[in-house]
């Protein structure tokens, strides 16, 4: 218990939280933040705000300045007999002043998922909003207060701006990577005719 209180106080000090904060509530919240997906923990709410462009949304989500660029050419600098690949990529930045790239700098690329994969996911969603309707993704948290535990819906920080489902699946979510054990376990609960018993732990 003493270690948990110390962790909580250290976090409060690190993030400049004053002494008026209920440390018991802050400590309890460490155990109530969701680490897995379920319909009871996440929800969509419609939003009428004006949608921003993809780069603006990604900049907010990743807290970095992101600018658009078109690929002009890709050339492998290694010989055809080599097992290695060193690519020379030429980008058209349209003389964007924010794109101050120099040789040796690291460059992050936010590629979009294939449209047909995104559409396939959207076609198989149930009880989902219009894929092109701006929404806000909210997560449920349980907070300890003087009257017991209460539920509070908060904006999910991964999607801090209004976004459409189509853009979320296109640019913000890895839909081609290996699913996590939590996702596999959830999918297993949705099987209508299971043929084997399996646990992803």
Q: What's a concise summary of this model?
A:
By secondary structure, the chain is of the alpha+beta class.
Q: Main traits of this protein?
A:
single chain, 201 residues, alpha+beta, 3-stranded antiparallel beta sheet, two-stranded antiparallel ribbon, 6 helices, disordered N terminus, FMN
Set out the fold topology.
Elements: H1 2-14, H2 23-32, E1 42-46, H3 54-62, E2 70-76, E3 87-92, H4 115-123, E4 135-145, E5 148-155, H5 165-172, H6 181-189
Helix pairs in contact: 1-2, 4-5
Would you give an account of this structure?
The protein is an alpha+beta fold and 201 residues long. Helix content is 29%, strand content 18%. It is built from six helices and five strands. It has helices at residues 2-14, 23-32, 54-62, 115-123, 165-172, 181-189; strands at residues 42-46, 70-76, 87-92, 135-145, 148-155. The strands form two sheets. A three-stranded antiparallel sheet has the order 1-4-5, with helices on one face. It has a two-stranded antiparallel ribbon with strand order 2-3. Helix 1 (2-14) crosses helix 2 (23-32) and helix 4 crosses helix 5. Residues 1-35 have low confidence and may be disordered.
Largest sheet: 3 strands, antiparallel
Strand content: 15-25%
The average pLDDT value, as a whole number, equals 75
Order of helices and strands: HHEHEEHEEHH
| Biggest sheet, spatial arrangement of strands | 1-4-5
- Total strand segments: 5
* Sheet/helix structural class: alpha+beta
CA-based gyration radius:
22 Å
Tell me the span between the first and last alpha carbons: 28 Å
Helix content: 25-40%
Characterize the overall form.
extended
Question: Helix count, per DSSP?
Answer: 6
Protein name: nitric-oxide synthase (NADPH)
GO molecular function, one term: metal ion binding
InterPro entries: CysJ-like_FAD-binding, NADPH_Cyt_P450_Rdtase_alpha, NOS, Riboflavin_synthase-like_b-brl
Keywords: Calmodulin-binding, FAD, Flavoprotein, FMN, Heme, Iron, Metal-binding, NADP, Oxidoreductase
